[in-house]
Amino acid sequence: MRSMMKTAILSLIAIFVIVPTALADNSVSRIDGGSRYAVAANVAKKGWGTASTVVLVGKTAYADATAGIPLAYQKNGPVLYTNSKSLSGDTKKALTSLKTKTVIVLGSTSSVSNNVVNQVKKMGISTQRISGKNRYELSANIAKKMKKPAGVVVVEGSFYAHGIAIAPVAAQKGFPILYTDKKGLRSEIASVAKASNVKQTIVVGGENYVTKAAYNQLKSPTRIKGSTRYDVAANIVKKYNMSVNNTYVGRGFGYATSSSAAGIAAKQNKALLLTNEKTLPKVTRATVSSKKITKFTVVGSTNTVTPTVVNQLKNPAVGKKVFIDPGHGAHDSGAVGYGLYEKNLNLDVAKRLNTKLNNAGALVTMSRTSDTFDSLQTRVSKGASANADIFISVHANSNDNSSANGTETYYDKTYAAANSLKLAQNIQPKMVSALGTRDRGVKTAGFYVIKYSKMPSVLLETGFVSSPVDSNILKSATYKDRLASGISSGVSGYFR
Ligand SMILES: [Zn+2]
Description:
alpha/beta, 20 strands, binds zinc ion, Cell_wall-bd_2, Bact_Sporulation_Assoc, N-acetylmuramoyl-L-alanine amidase LytC
C-alpha cells in the first residue's frame, strides 16, 4: 500500500514536472478589456493590486501617458486612461479597487477636464495636475517631478511607438522621457536634458526623428533605431538585455494598450515587444527565437492582438528559420507520371508549406519560387547562407512498377544525425495521415542536399507519381494543402 502510494505520488510529480517542460507550446496569457480604459484598469489590477498614487491621462493623450510611465513607476502606481469630459466607469472602479489616495493628472483641461478632476475628488482622492503648453513642455514638467535623473530619454513627440518601446527601460533607470520634434532640440526640454545631473542620453529613432543636430547637443548620447517600430522595440530588448521570462506584447499602432503594456513591463522589469495586430512581424519572430522567449502576456482585446498572433507566439516554430528546397526545376523535371511533373508538384507543395509555416510564425526561405534550376550544391549553399535551423527538401517518388506507392522521409547521419532523425520522425507520420498513403517509414540515404547540409535536414518523398493511386492524391489541391499542413505541424512538433 505504502509503495503504491509512493508510486502514485512519484507519477504525479512526474506529470507535473516533466510534461510541461518537455512537450509544451509557448504559453501566452492576455490582459483583456473592452476599451482602453478597461485594459488599463485590468493591467493596473494585475500589476499593482493596490496603488496609493495613480497617473491619469486623457483618452488620446498617448504622449502624456508614455512620459507618465517613469513618474508612475517612481510612485509605484499605474497610468490609467479616462474619457476627457467624464471619468470613465472602468477607471472609476479601478481607482476604488486600487485604494488610490492621490491622482496625478497629466495634461491640460482639454485632455482631462476639471469635471473629471471633480469626480475624482468626490471619491475622496486628492488630485494634482502637471500641465504644459504643449507635449514638449509637459514632458519637461513631468521630469521635474521625478527624482533627479542620471540620464534622460529623448524621442520624437508624435511617433508614439518609440517612447512606448523605451518606456520600461526609462522607468527602470529613472530616466524621464523628453519629447522633441523633427526640426531639432525643442527649447522646452533643453534645460532638463542638459542639467548637470544628467550624464547620459538615450535617443530612440533615426535622424529623421531626432536630428543629428539635436543629438549632438545631448549629453553622452546613444541612439537606438530600426527600420520599423517593431525593429526598434526588438533592438531595445536586445540592447538592454531585458528579462524575457514573460515578455509583454503590445500592438505597435495601438498606443493606448501598448502604453499600458509598457507600464506593467516597467513595473515587473520585463521586456516589451510590439506586434502588428494581424501577424507577428518578422523581426519580432526572430527576437522571440534568438532570445528563446517561451512565455508572453499580450495586452489588449482580440481585435488589438488577434488570436492569429497569439497562435504564432504559442507555436514552438515561431521565429525558427526553415529552408524549403523544392526538388528539381526547369530542364530537370524530376519524375514524370500520370500527367504529373515532379518539379511542378514539388514547387506547389513547397509553396503551400511556405504559407503554412509563415502563418505558424516561422521564418521561411525557399531555394526556388518558380520553375528554375539550381545545382544540388547551390541548394546546400543557399540553406547555409539562410542560416537555417532546419532544411526540408521536397520530392516525389517514381518506380518502374506502378504498384509501388507510399510516403517516406529520408535523413542522413553525416551532420546533425540525431536531430535530422527527430525531424524526420516528426514529419513522416503527419504526411501519412494527411495523405492517407502507405507509410514507408523513415529511412537513411546519402542524398546530396541532406548529406552536405550541416543543419538538421530531411528529404521528403511525398508519394509516387508513377502510382495511379498516389498520383491521384498528389493531383488534388485539397490533399496538397493537407500535406503542407501536416509537414508544418511536424515542424512545430520538432521544435516543441
Ligand atoms: Zn526528386
